[in-house]
Amino acid sequence: MSTDTPYRTHLAQPITLDDQGVYYTVNRKTGGINNVFHLVYESNEWYMYQLKNTNKEGDMGWVILADQDDYPLTSVDTETIHRLFDKPEFAEPLGAWQLMRNGRYGFGKFTPLDAQQPNRYAMVLFSGNEMLVPLLIEKAQDEVLQSLATLAK
């Protein structure tokens, strides 16, 4: 991508404490919720959890998304973000990404160039230094989904 493209001149909004919360994916066919994630800032570190079934009947619990002992998410540098997102499938809409990750999982925030459009979010899976397709996630606004955050981690 040339240096005169809007992507390179447009800065993404940073991931902030306002981005903490419960996120979910929606099944495009059924409209139902597929996955629920919780982005948390605690003890000066970012962590991402996924709501999963436990071994107990019907119980759910938060499981940290990590690869072995690599738990906290750390910021990804700008050049790496450009390398990961400088692909045709990310050309539209115009905007810029912020990304943080651990060894296997990441959280991304997309700031569109058009200020009238809302920010978008993604849960990202990595294989080594290669990013697999980001999974678009929506921030929960519903009180019922927000109450999921009270489940024990």
Describe this structure in words.
With 153 residues, the chain is mainly beta. The protein has one domain. The chain is 11% helix and 41% strand. It is built from 3 helices and 10 strands. Strands 1, 2, 3, 4, 5, 6, 7, 8, 9 and 10 form a 10-stranded antiparallel beta sheet that branches. A hairpin with a 2-residue loop joins strand 8 and strand 9. The longest helix has 8 residues. It is globular, with a radius of gyration of 16 Å. The N terminus is likely disordered.
List the helices and strands and how they pair.
Elements: H1 6-9, E1 21-26, E2 33-42, E3 45-53, E4 60-64, E5 74-75, H2 78-85, E6 95-101, E7 105-112, E8 120-127, E9 130-131, E10 135-139, H3 143-147
Antiparallel strand pairs: 1-2, 1-10, 2-3, 3-4, 5-6, 6-7, 7-8, 8-9, 8-10
What is the mean predicted local confidence, pLDDT?
86
Distance between the termini: 42 Å
Overall outline: globular
Instruction: Provide the β-strand percentage band.
Output: 35-45%
Number of domains: 1
Per DSSP, the total helix count is: 3
Instruction: Label the structural class.
Output: mainly beta
Quick one: how many beta strands? 10
Order of helices and strands: HEEEEEHEEEEEH
Largest sheet, in brief, is: 10 strands, antiparallel
Q: Are there runs of 5+ residues with pLDDT below 50, and where? A: 1-9
Radius of gyration: 16 Å
Task: Offer a concise description of the structure.
The chain is mainly beta and 153 residues long. The protein is built from three helices and ten strands.
Distinctive features:
153 residues, ten-stranded antiparallel sheet, 3 helices, globular, mainly beta
